[in-house]
Every structure is written in C-alpha cells, then in structure tokens.
UniProtKB/TrEMBL annotation:
This is Uma2 family endonuclease. Signal peptide: none annotated. One of its GO terms (molecular function) is endonuclease activity. Keywords: Endonuclease, Hydrolase, Nuclease. Residues 16-165 form the Putative restriction endonuclease domain. The keyword Nuclease applies. The keyword NAD does not apply. Gene3D superfamilies: tt1808, chain A.
Amino acid sequence: MIRPVEERYRTVRDLFPELRIERINGRIVVNEPGTWQHNTVIAQLLAQLAPVVAERRWEIWPNITVHLGDEADRYVPDLTVVPQNPVMETDEAVRGASTLLLVDVVSAGNAYDDHVIKPMGYAPAGVPLYLVVDPFQRLLKLHSRPEAGGYACETVEPVGAPLPLPAPWDCLLDTTRLLNL
C-alpha cells in the first residue's frame, strides 16, 4: 500500500530531524546543511536584519516549517521572520500569513524550486514578503503583495544595488555585502 505523501513526509522528517525536510510539488526534498558560502550569505543577511528585528521585538527563526494550507506543500526557508506571538499551525509550523519575511538562498539543486515553485505556494498562503538570494546569478528577488494567483510585485536587484524592503520593514538592504564571497 502506498502511503499518502503527508504521512511519508512526516516519517522522513521524524527520521532526520537535523535536516530540512520539505514537501515541494508532491516531492519529499531532503536538504543537507548549507555550504560555508551559503551560511556566510545567511550570516551577512542576519547582521543587517537583526537590528530592525530586535527594535520591533520580532523573532528570526532559522528552521521552521511554513504552513501553507492543509493540503498544500510544506516549505522550510533558510530564514523566517515572525512578529511576537505568530499564529502557529503546530509546534513545528507557523502559518504563512503570520510571517513578516521568508528568505531562501539558492543552492545548486534548488534554483527552480526557490525561483518558481515556492513563490506560487507562498503567495496564496498570504506570505507578505519572500526574498530569494541567488549567488549564482548574483541577484536578489523580492516577492511582495501576495494574491491568490501569485505575487503582484517582484523586485529584482543585482548585487551592489540597495534593495528596499516595504512595510512593515521600511528599510534598505545593502546587497554589496551579501555576496562578496
């Protein structure tokens, strides 16, 4: 008997709690820990976001599942920023509409998922901002203004150009420091 995808997803997640396990388009994706370059990009991004997050008493979660709906995929972004007391689906999953910013740094094997699949899942779930940092193309792509069919706004900036984060952030990211590896 073939077990439903959700049951297989939970089994794999329980077997490998140290890894990021996602359900993407019906596939169970096991993400190994990032390379030093991947982690350096995350650390540089954290250094810029942390002062704003601390001032507003938000929280940064590096390993949490984003609940997109009962029958939807399960994504685990590299960084999730949430307000105080976000709405949780389970102890391991925050509701997409209860986030402030999700960030993924593209790795060699996940470019299509990060650029195409995940925005299509995040927007209908009400995720307000989804940032994709692509070290291979040397660009940042910010998806904003979620709608049922996708994001109404997509801002793409090359490394070196400031990237404005809209409300409730109202700040600029200095992209020159993000990808200087």
